[in-house]
UniProtKB/TrEMBL annotation:
SMART domains: HTH_LACI. This is LacI family transcriptional regulator. Keywords: DNA-binding, Repressor, Transcription, Transcription regulation. PANTHER family: HTH-TYPE TRANSCRIPTIONAL REPRESSOR PURR-RELATED (PTHR30146:SF148), LACI-RELATED TRANSCRIPTIONAL REPRESSOR (PTHR30146). GO terms for molecular function: DNA-binding transcription factor activity; transcription cis-regulatory region binding. Pfam families: LacI, Peripla_BP_3.
Length: 348
C-alpha cells in the first residue's frame, strides 16, 4: 500500500498557518504579500520535513496556470552568452516555483514559429524570446494571448512587448571614461566601428549604442577620436587586419575595440609591430569573453551580464503574468567593468 500523499493542508497544519498562507509562500509569493520571513521559513521547513510536493495538474486546473515558462532562443548550446542567460532564467523561474521549457530555433523563422506553437500547446504561462546577440527582430505574430518578453532583442517596429537588454550606451561611456581617467586624450582609435554612427555593422544594436556612449563622454571632455575602422564580422582576424592597416599609417596611443574577439586580433597586430600593451598602446574592450582574463596582459573590458539578463527577463515576465508589472517596457541591465591590465597612462 503506497503512503498517503502529503497535502497542502497537512503542511499548513504542521506550520500553524492557514492553507492560503502556506499556498502563497510555497508558490513564491510570500515576500510580495509581506508574510514575515519567520513564517515563510517555518512553512518551508515543514514542507521539506514532510516531503510535500505540490500537485501541479490540479493547481493548473484550479488557477488556469501551469507554472511553466517557454524559453525560445536562436542559440542554446554553442554560446556562453546563451548558456549563462538560460542559467539565470532557470534559477529565477525555480525561485518562484516555475519550470522552464527550452527550445532552440537556430535562427530559422519557420522553426521558431513551430517552437512557439509547441510552447502554446503545452499551455505555458509566458514566453521569453531570446537572441544570442543584441539585434532588431521581427516579432512573430501569435494567435494566442500569452505574456511575452524579448531578451537581448529589440522589435523592428513598434511593439507593446517588454524588452530586456544590456545597457550598451552606458557600457560605451564606461570604456571611454577608463581611457580618460588614465590620461588619454589623443591618438584614440576605434576598432570595429566608426568613427561615425554610419559606419557600423548592419543590424548591430550593440555597435550603435556602444559608439553613442563613447562619443558622448569624449565630446563632454573635449576629446576628439583620432579615427575608426569598421569590421563587418567581429572576429580576431578582422581585428588583426584593421589594426595592421591602422599601424601602416599611424601609431595609436589607445584602442577601443568593440568586442574582445576584435581585441585579441588587435593584440596580435600590435605584437607583430613590436608594440606592447599597455606601455605603448592601451586597449579597452567589451563583452568579457572567457579568454579576456587569460591573455597577457589581461584585457580590461566591459562585461555582458549574461546571467543577470536571463534572470531579469524571467522576473519581468512573471510580473506581466501576475499583473504586477510597473508599465516600464524597456529594461536595461548594467554592464560591469572588468578592470585588468591593458590600460595605462600614455607615455610622455
Amino acid at each position: 500500500m503506497s503512503p498517503r500523499r502529503v497535502t497542502l493542508a497537512d503542511v499548513a497544519e504542521a506550520a500553524g498557518v492557514s492553507r492560503s498562507t502556506a499556498s502563497l509562500v510555497l508558490s513564491g509569493r510570500g515576500a510580495e504579500l509581506r508574510i514575515s520571513a519567520a513564517v515563510q521559513e517555518r512553512i518551508r521547513a515543514a514542507a521539506d520535513e514532510m516531503g510535500y510536493r505540490p500537485n501541479m495538474v490540479s493547481a493548473g486546473l484550479r488557477t488556469g496556470r501551469t507554472r511553466t515558462i517557454g524559453f525560445v532562443s536562436d542559440t542554446v548550446a554553442t554560446s556562453r552568452l546563451a548558456g549563462d542567460m538560460i542559467k539565470g532564467a532557470i534559477e529565477a523561474a525555480r525561485d518562484r516555483g516555475f519550470l522552464l521549457f527550452i527550445g532552440e530555433s537556430e535562427g530559422d523563422a519557420e522553426l521558431e514559429g513551430a517552437l512557439l506553437e509547441a510552447m502554446h500547446d503545452r499551455q505555458v504561462d509566458g514566453i521569453v524570446l531570446a537572441s544570442m546577440y543584441t539585434r532588431r527582430i521581427s516579432v512573430p505574430k501569435s494567435p494566442r494571448p500569452t505574456s511575452v518578453v524579448l531578451l537581448n532583442a529589440v522589435p523592428k517596429t513598434s511593439s507593446p512587448l517588454p524588452v530586456v537588454v544590456p545597457d550598451e550606451v552606458e557600457a560605451g561611456r564606461t570604456a571611454a571614461r577608463v581611457l580618460l581617467e588614465a590620461g588619454h586624450r589623443e591618438g584614440i582609435h576605434l576598432i570595429g566601428v566608426g568613427p561615425s554612427t554610419r559606419n557600423v555593422p548592419r543590424d548591430s544594436v550593440a555597435a550603435v549604442e556602444r559608439l553613442v556612449g563613447v562619443r558622448e563622454v569624449f565630446a563632454e571632455a573635449g576629446v576628439k577620436l583620432a579615427g575608426g575602422a569598421l569590421c563587418r564580422d567581429w572576429q580576431p582576424e578582422e581585428g588583426f587586419a584593421a589594426t595592421t592597416e591602422l599601424l601602416s599609417r599611424a601609431t595609436p596611443r589607445a584602442l577601443i575595440c568593440l568586442n574582445d574577439r576584435i581585441a585579441f586580433g588587435a593584440y596580435q597586430a600590435l605584437d607583430d609591430a613590436g608594440l606592447t600593451v599597455p606601455d605603448d598602446v592601451s586597449v579597452v574592450s567589451f563583452d568579457d569573453h572567457s579568454l579576456a582574463g587569460w591573455v597577457r596582459p589581461r584585457l580590461t573590458t566591459v562585461a555582458l551580464p549574461h546571467y543577470e539578463l536571463g534572470r531579469k527577463a524571467v522576473e519581468v515576465l512573471l510580473a506581466e503574468i501576475d499583473g504586477t508589472a510597473t508599465g516600464e517596457k524597456f529594461h536595461r541591465v548594467p554592464m560591469p567593468l572588468r578592470d585588468r591590465d591593458s590600460v595605462a597612462s600614455p607615455r610622455r
